[in-house]
Amino acid sequence: MGAPGLSYLPDHGDETYHVARYDLRLDYKIVPNRLSAHAVLTAVARRQLSRFTLDLSGFKVSAVRVDGRAAKFARRGHRMTVKPARPLAEGAEFAVEVRYSGNPRPVGGRWGDIGWDELTDGALVASQPIGAPSWFPCNDRPGDKASYTVAVTTSSAYRVLVTGDLVSRQAGASATTWVFQRREPTSTYLMSVQIGRYDELPLPGPVAQRVAVPRRLRDKASADFGRQPEMMACFERLFGPYPFGEYVVVVTDDDLEDPIEAQGMAIFGANHVDGRCGFERLVAHELAHQWFGNSLTIARWQDIWLNEGFATYAEWLWSQESGGPGVAELVREWGARVPGSAFPIGDPGVAHLFDPPVYKRGALTLHALRGRVGDERFFAMLRSWATVWRHGAVTTADFVAHAEAHAGEPLGGFFAEWLGRW
Ligand SMILES: [Zn+2]
Description:
Its EC number is 3.4.11.2. With 422 residues, this protein is an alpha+beta fold.
C-alpha cells in the first residue's frame, strides 16, 4: 500500500517530461503477428534533461533519434532510457523518433495479460492499466494526456478501428492503410487498436454511435445495444454533453473476461452479447466511463474510485431509468453485500486496484453524498464536475474540493469515513 501521493507504479511513466502528441505508423501482418513501427513523440521537458525514460515492452528497437540526431539508448525490462546527443533545456519542445519491430505481446503481471493481444482472427488492444507499452513507446502514466495520429497498414480483408476519427483509408493491392486522429487529450492506456472481420451496425441518435461486430453476432448485438441511444440521452441529461465526437462499440469474435473502455470506444467479448440484454449493466458501465475515466482521467491510479465508483453509480441510475431495480434497492443490496472494505478505497493499494469495494463502495459513497446534499445540488455538482474538468486529469482532492464548493460545507469528515484516506 503506497503512501498517499506516491505513485502506485513507480516503474511506469516519467514525470520529467510531458508528451503532447504521438504520431504512430504501424505495419501489422496478422498471421505471423508481426508489427513494424515508427513512432514520433512531440514532448516538452519539464526540467533540464540529460536523459529520460520511455516505456516499451518487447520488440527490437533499431533506432532512436532526438530532434533528428541519433540518441544512445539502453533497455531494461519495459524501460528504455534515452540519452540525447545534447541535454534538453527546461521548457524545450523536442521530438523523439523510435523505430521498432517484432511480435507484439501483452504485458503480463498481476492483472493478467493486457495490451496488444492476438484474437483467433485479428487483434485487439485493451491496456488498462499498463498495457500501452505493448504496442508503442510512451510516457505511461494516466495523467499524461496527448493527442494522437495512428496509421495502421494491414491486410485489406480486415476492418481496423482505432480510438479516433478515421481521416483516410487507402487500399493497395493487398493491404489497406487506415489513418485515425484522436484530437482530445488522451491517456496512453485508453488508446486502442481493433482489427477483425467486422460488420458495422449504426445506432440512431444525435451522438454518432455504431457497433462493430462479427456477422454471426449481428442480430444479438442489435438487440443488446438497442437501448444504448436512450442510455446516451439519459447520461447526457445527468452528466452533460457526451465528451467525444463518436462512440464505437466493438464486439470481438472471441470471449473476453470483462468489457473494457477506450477513448470514445468500448470493447465487449462475444460472451457479453446474448440477444436478451443480459449484460446491459455493463453497456451502461462502459458508456459512463466516457465521462468518468476517459474525459476526466485520474492523474494517479490511487484515485481509481473516481472511475469505477462513478461508472457503477451510473449503472444504478440507468437501472432505475430503464425500469429495472431502483437506486434505493441497489444501494440496500450492495450496502448489505459490501458492508465495509478491508482497505481504504481512496488509497486501495496496487493489489486492490480493481477489487469490488472500489466499485461498489465507491458508488455507495456517491449515493451517501447525494443523501447529504440533496438531489438538486448533487446532480448539479456531478454535471459541473464532468464539465469543469472535461478532458483533464483529476484527483480525489479535486473532487472533494468540488463537492464542498457545491455543498457549501466542509466534507472532509464525510469523505474520510467513506474513502479512508486519499
Ligand atoms: Zn469500469
